[in-house]
Amino acid sequence: MSVVLDLVDVSVVRGAGKRLIDGVSWRVEEGERWAVLGPNGAGKSTLLSVAAARLFPTSGMVDILDEILGAVDVFELRPRIGVTSGALANQIPHSETVLNVVVTAAYAVTGRWREQYDPDDERRARELMGQWGVGELADRTFGSLSDGERKRALIARALMTDPELMILDEPGAGMDIGGREDLVERLTELARDPYAPTTVLVTHHLEELPQGLTHLMLLNRGRVVAAGPIQDVLTSENLSATYETPLKLTEVDGRYTAFKDAS
Ligand SMILES: Nc1ncnc2c1ncn2[C@@H]1O[C@H](COP(=O)(O)OP(=O)(O)OP(=O)(O)O)[C@@H](O)[C@H]1O
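== ABC transporter ATP-binding protein ==
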């Protein structure tokens, strides 16, 4: 199996020596489905920005899809990585149609820049929009969509280039329970699809973990608390250490939640 991500002793340091991530080593192999959990400010988004070739670390080695960050043209590497994040959503003009939001990924831009697209690109965009439940919304403006619809349109966009690595930063943020459950169902299908790209998902909520995840990283204060196969890492003890509060993990039919352990 080939290695998709290999981070060795990676740190990102900002003003006054603040370590956003601190000596992180992480190996992701082809076909794995990871989630990254950790409290606010733990460094999850920073870590994902490094993994998506959007941010250079202060120190350490980063290998993404067999290319070393710093020795590769990131503009050639980035189209191989599908990303959804709130930051990306904010860059998209609200007046853009949903079809354009999705199809422009093939041209690595966020606004329409050509009047005509390749018919194959448009066909693929419409197919992905259908799969992610926004097929009927192709001609609506991005700004008119609900939070949940926007998130699903962005996932369709991220898949547009047939990426080898897919990075989902809080795809369920801002959704109501129905929207979340719909998203988890679709993410479960994606996780179980053997042809889907290697995936890394960041979330704040255990309830958003789709079934079919294979691995989990727990991050706190920029450091890895635990990382590895989900069945080994997802424990009350590890969650308590990560969130610095006593937590009791509960599992129901392959879905998870955690509450403060009062015992
Ligand atoms: N330029 C910067 N200078 C100093 N600190 C920064 C800078 N950018 C981010 N930080 C801090 O780095 C820490 C990690 O931020 P990051 O966004 O990676 O965390 P996160 O785990 O994604 O948080 P959240 O769950 O709240 O989104 C936070 O404490 C943040 O305030």
